[in-house]
Amino acid sequence: MRKNFLRKKEDFECQVCGGWVKGDGYTDHCPQCLWGKHVDKRLPGDRESSCGGLMRPEGAIWEKGQYRIFYRCESCGHGFWVREGEEDKREELERLTVKIFPEKSEGVGGRGKGKIRKGG
C-alpha cells in the first residue's frame, strides 16, 4: 500500500470565500482563507473520501521552518495536519498560530510544540 503523497494538479473555487485556487499538484486548501474540502481518505492526494465536508483550519504551529495547519472536517470530524502552501496568506497562518496553547513558546510562530485549543 502506498504511503506517500499522490500529486494531483487541480484548480477549484473555494466553497468558503469564493476565491479561485490554481492547484500546483500539492494544493489541498484555499490560500486566502485556508479552508479545504474533505476529499482524501487514506493519504494526501488519493481523492477517495466520499465525505466532501468542509475542512476547518483549527490551528497552526511553526515547526522546522514552516507552518503546519491542523484541519477538522465539519461533517465527519476527521482531523489531520498539512504543511503550509507557498501562497498561503501569512496573516491567516499567524492568526491560527495564536489559537495554540504552547507548552513552551517564543510567541507567535514560536518553536515550542503546542496543543490545539478546542472550539476555535
Keywords:
120 residues, mainly beta, four-stranded antiparallel sheet, two-stranded antiparallel ribbon, 7% helix, globular, disordered C terminus
Average pLDDT score? 79
If you compute it from the alpha carbons, what radius of gyration comes out, rounded to the nearest whole angstrom? 14 Å
Q: Please outline the major beta sheet.
A: 4 strands, antiparallel
Beta strands, count: 8
- Strand content of the residues, in percent? 25-35%
Q: H/E element string?
A: EEEEEEHEE
Q: Helical amount among residues, as a percent range?
A: under 10%
| Overall domain count | 1
The best one-word shape is globular
Largest sheet: spatial strand order: 3-4-5-6
Low-confidence stretches: 101-120
| DSSP summary: helix tally | 1
Task: Detail the topology: elements first, then pairings.
Elements: E1 12-13, E2 20-21, E3 36-37, E4 54-63, E5 66-73, E6 79-83, H1 90-97, E7 100-102, E8 114-116
Antiparallel strand pairs: 1-2, 3-4, 4-5, 5-6, 7-8
Report on this model:
The protein is mostly beta strands and 120 residues long. It has one domain (12-116). It is 7% helix and 29% strand. It contains 1 helix and 8 strands, in the order E-E-E-E-E-E-H-E-E. The strands form 3 sheets. Strands 3-4-5-6 form a 4-stranded antiparallel sheet, covered by helices on one side. Strands 1-2 form a two-stranded antiparallel sheet. A two-stranded antiparallel sheet has the order 7-8. The longest helix has 8 residues, at 90-97.
